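RECORD TYPE: inverse folding
INPUT: structure tokens
STRUCTURE:
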């Protein structure tokens, strides 16, 4: 289906305008699609993003700073997201032996249903 038909708009001023609207439309479609997938897992997109970062570490611990640097949503509160994942037992937190102010984070062995498909 054409974008014009989907959003009920006859035409666009320029191809660039159409491209911008299409990007926004596609982003919103993807967010809705992912939210539907996450609904049954009791996870948010931001929590899933943290889990993907930790999984990418291949069982090596990482710091909260590294997670903040790699998060897709820069406006997210990584500390709070990690706290929720620890409470759900998806993340394990250990005090860093080298720096007592820092913590090491690891993904736990707990599985998240069909989230691996995302």
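DESIGNED SEQUENCE:
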């Amino acid at each position: 289906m054409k974008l014009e038909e989907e959003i009920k708009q006859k035409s666009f001023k320029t191809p660039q305008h159409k491209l911008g609207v299409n990007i926004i439309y596609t982003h919103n479609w993807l967010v809705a699609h992912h939210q539907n997938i996450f609904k049954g897992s009791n996870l948010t997109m931001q929590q899933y993003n943290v889990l993907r970062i930790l999984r990418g570490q291949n069982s090596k611990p990482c710091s909260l700073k590294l997670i903040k640097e790699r998060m897709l949503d820069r406006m997210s509160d990584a500390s709070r997201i990690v706290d929720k994942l620890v409470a759900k037992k998806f993340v394990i937190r250990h005090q860093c032996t080298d720096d007592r102010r820092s913590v090491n984070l690891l993904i736990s062995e707990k599985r998240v249903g069909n989230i691996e498909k995302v």
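NOTES: The domain at 45-109 is CATH 1.10.10.10 (Arc Repressor Mutant, subunit A).
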